[in-house]
């Protein structure tokens, strides 16, 4: 008797954002100590907006996701949301950029490496989760099953062309809400740190032999071009 296939629900952007924030918190405090690290993170979160952070924190918690947001939020958060009318993708971008800005502006190249390390850890954990999603339905973690079991929903805000080849997936994004928000906010120097690391890290978490050629970026060339290649 064949096993029933499980319907894998995509993670909400509130969960995705909470995961990213937690890895930023961990990497920054590891690099600069609890006092300095927390000051940097808190300054970035204040620049983003504590009320907006609280809204995302509550939604992520309601969906069962543990995170570090509440370590930076008072019991009662004053003020109004600044970005209630923006998409969850835009809020992710703004949060990431504001926290990264505090670290990079002060510690320059060393700070860039700290942010990249946070993205790498976050990406690998997501990739491991994608592999588990595939395995739960009896599927191998090969190139064909990568996007089919992806953890983040691809909303209509993404404009993408996807081509499947033997042991390879090629994608061209002509519009990305993350990159566009960083460009609109003139925060590309911080957003690019995410773009440089995220897809190779997710791919490696999914399968150690899954490599990514990312030769064009929305923030540089106006589009993102990827080749996801299974090497073995």
Automatic annotation (TrEMBL):
Organism: Oceanobacillus sojae
Lineage: Bacteria, Bacillati, Bacillota, Bacilli, Bacillales
One Pfam family this sequence matches: ATC_hydrolase
Top-level taxon of the source organism: Bacteria
InterPro entries: ATC_hydrolase-like
Protein name, per record: L-2-amino-thiazoline-4-carboxylic acid hydrolase
């Amino acid at each position: 008797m064949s096993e029933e296939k499980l319907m894998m629900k995509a993670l909400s952007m509130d969960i995705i954002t909470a995961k990213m924030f937690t890895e930023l918190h961990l990497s920054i405090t590891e690099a600069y100590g609890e006092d300095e690290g927390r000051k940097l993170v808190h300054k970035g979160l204040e620049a983003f907006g504590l009320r907006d952070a609280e809204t995302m924190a509550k939604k992520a918690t309601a969906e069962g996701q543990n995170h570090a947001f509440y370590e930076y939020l008072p019991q009662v958060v004053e003020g109004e949301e600044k970005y209630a009318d923006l998409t969850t993708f835009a809020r992710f971008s703004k949060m990431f950029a504001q926290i990264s800005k505090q670290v990079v502006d002060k510690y320059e190249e060393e700070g860039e490496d700290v942010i990249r390390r946070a993205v790498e850890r976050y990406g690998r954990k997501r990739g491991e989760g994608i592999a588990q999603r595939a395995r739960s339905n009896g599927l191998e973690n090969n190139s064909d099953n990568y996007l089919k079991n992806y953890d983040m929903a691809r909303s209509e805000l993404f404009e993408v062309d996807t081509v499947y080849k033997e042991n390879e997936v090629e994608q061209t994004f002509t519009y990305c809400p993350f990159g566009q928000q960083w460009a609109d906010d003139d925060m590309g120097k911080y957003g690019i740190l995410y773009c440089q690391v995220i897809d190779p890290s997710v791919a490696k978490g999914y399968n150690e032999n899954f490599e990514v050629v990312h030769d064009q970026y929305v923030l540089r060339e106006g589009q993102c071009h990827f080749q996801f290649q299974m090497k073995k």
